[in-house]
Write a structure and sequence with these properties.
Blueprint (H helix, E strand, L loop, with lengths): L7 H12 L13 H11 L12 H17 L5 E3 L2 E3 L1 E3 L2 E16 L2 E6 L4 E5 L9 E6 L5 E2 L4 E2 L10 E4 L5 E2 L2 E2 L3 H7 L4 H7 L8 E6 L1 H7 L10 E4 L10 E6 H7 L21 E19 L2 E7 L10 E7 L15 H20 L5 E7 L7 H8 L8 E7 L15 E4 L6 H13 L5 E2 L11 H6 L4 E5 L18 H20 L7
Helix pairs in contact: 1-3, 2-8, 2-12, 3-8, 8-12, 10-12
This protein binds zinc ion (ZN).
């Protein structure tokens, strides 16, 4: 329930501020560093306390964004209690562990009961899709999805709703790496786990057992278990999503539950590809029991539309998105204002919305500021499962998550990451390169180069919707109390917002190369 009100004077100052600067002739030229600065200084002020999901500061940010969408002339498209609204409620709850999860594994050789903290550890993801269910257990080999390098452990494997056992390391043939040297080295280190998990996004597994050898276990043991702090989760997501329940499992436990099965390793540290063959573990199932206290929390996505001008193409949508939430104060109580992460992206979206509304495209454009990205992409997951427009009519997602800073790797030319552009189709990346070359010409880096961050574009990607994730990279102020508005490169934020506008214009008015 929204029963708190924010100071009206704040809304008015913001709305008037943006109206004053609406005289440039080209729509893209109306996207200015000055207006972006205005939004960022508001959203990243101490008054908003870091915009943590379900906080008072988040609600103020949502109301501010709503007023910006209204002032720009966007249409509301979400229905709340039968009325059109800009704020889409997101059913979020805070879950506190009452009793730690217990895993019971049935195997043909008998039952194994696993205790949390001793035999396994919950590191990431939602437990909801696993609770109270009996799940098949599948051995997914090394869990490496690198089809371009000739290796895919998931090929032909039934994974939806299953619990996957992932063996550590990377394959060897006659003692030599199967994968290219750098890739092999990466997958053999603890860092390789994040790459493995990225490769599992489309599998819709219920859970993942990351089997740890002693060297990796020691490193992962430093991560806090998810049972130690309350979880903020989607209350209505009980079907497997793209973020599975991720737990670590000791080698000896994994070997015990796979005992007697063909194609499974027989000793810890086994890396011989000839001895590892993914497949369903015959007669092996798992059930999870846990108890939680749940408290509903208020949260909203901010959603607005500029309708297309073409009678046919207006039924298709380009999504322009950013997450509005950030983090709680740090352990010392300092507010983390999240100026770059992600007041900058939200400011960009607001400015692009205003520009598109001045001269609409043939296709419609849907603008969304998401809740709960930092808590596990909650807002985008809810948006796409309870989509206010037909989901298969969304043709692309342009996601701005940090557009105002530069990491160390980009110091020389202020290059920015434009990630995942070829994750769904190579045609999207080609189009992005062509549009940038023709318009803004900002130096872009398309490859991850060790950057493992993900954002709401991944949710679109799992539904087959291509897109791009504009990202500053992990600079020293990332997720710290020092991510402040005075450190933003406003010229860069303007350039990237204009580039996103140009990309939306291309997608909005032209045939889509990947839909021929
Ligand atoms: Zn972010």
């Amino acid at each position: 329930m929204m029963n708190r009100r924010l100071p009206v004077s704040l809304i008015f100052t913001a709305v008037l501020g943006s109206l004053a600067a609406q005289e440039a002739s080209s729509p893209a030229a109306s996207i200015t560093a000055a207006e972006i600065k205005h939004h960022i200084y508001f959203l990243a002020s101490d008054a908003l306390e870091g915009r943590y999901i379900a906080s008072k500061g988040y609600e103020i940010a949502a109301r501010y964004s709503e007023s910006q969408f209204m002032a720009a002339g966007l249409k509301s498209i979400v229905q709340v209690e039968g009325k059109p609204a800009f704020l889409q409620p997101v059913p979020v709850q805070k879950r506190t562990t009452k009793s730690a999860p217990v895993l019971t594994i049935k195997t043909p050789k008998g039952e194994i009961v696993l205790t949390h903290g001793k035999d396994f550890k919950w590191l990431e993801g939602d437990i909801l899709p696993c609770e109270g269910k009996t799940m098949d257990v599948v051995f997914a080999g090394f869990g490496i999805h690198e089809p371009a390098a000739g290796w895919d452990d998931f090929k032909g494997l039934a994974t939806e709703g299953k619990l996957l056992v992932i063996w550590p390391g990377a394959p060897l043939k006659k003692g030599k790496p199967v994968l290219p040297a750098v890739m092999h080295k990466n997958y053999s280190s603890v860092l390789g786990w994040s790459q493995k998990l990225m490769g599992m996004l489309s599998l819709r597994a219920a859970g993942v057992f990351m089997v740890t050898d002693p060297s990796i276990a020691a490193l992962l043991d430093r991560n806090r278990a998810k049972t130690e702090t309350p979880q903020v989760v989607l209350a209505n997501q009980t079907a497997p999503s793209f973020i599975p329940w991720i737990v670590t499992l000791k080698s000896e436990t994994a070997l015990a539950l796979m005992a007697g099965q063909s194609g499974t390793p027989k000793k810890a540290g086994e890396a011989d590809a000839a001895k590892i063959r993914p497949g369903r573990l015959a007669g092996v199932t798992a059930t999870v029991a846990a108890a939680f206290d749940a408290e509903p929390l208020p949260a909203w996505n901010v959603v607005g539309v500029v309708e297309g001008t073409d009678p046919v193409l207006k039924s298709e949508y380009i999504a322009v998105t950013a997450h509005l939430d950030h983090l709680n104060p740090d352990s010392k109580g300092a507010i983390r204002n999240g100026a770059d992460d992600n007041a900058s992206g939200c400011a960009g979206v607001m400015e692009i919305a205003e520009a598109v509304a001045r001269r609409p495209f043939k296709r419609s454009v849907i603008f969304v500021l998401f809740a709960g990205e930092e808590s596990g992409l909650l807002g985008s997951r809810h948006f796409l499962t309870e989509c206010p427009v037909p989901r298969d009519k969304i043709v692309a997602d342009l996601d701005l998550d940090m557009i105002g800073r530069t990491d160390k790797a980009g110091e020389a030319d202020r290059a920015h990451y434009a990630l995942d552009a070829d994750a769904v189709t190579p045609e999207f990346k080609k189009l992005l390169i062509a549009v940038n070359d023709r318009t803004v010409r900002w130096p872009l880096k398309y490859d991850r180069q060790g950057v493992s961050a993900g954002s709401d574009n991944m949710t679109f990607g799992t539904f087959g919707i291509p897109g791009v994730f504009f990202f500053s990279g992990s600079h020293p102020d990332y997720h710290r109390a020092t991510d402040d508005a005075d450190k933003i490169d406003y010229e860069k934020a303007e350039a990237l917002s204009r580039l996103t506008y140009e990309l939306a214009a291309e997608l909005g008015d032209k045939p889509l190369p990947w839909k021929k």
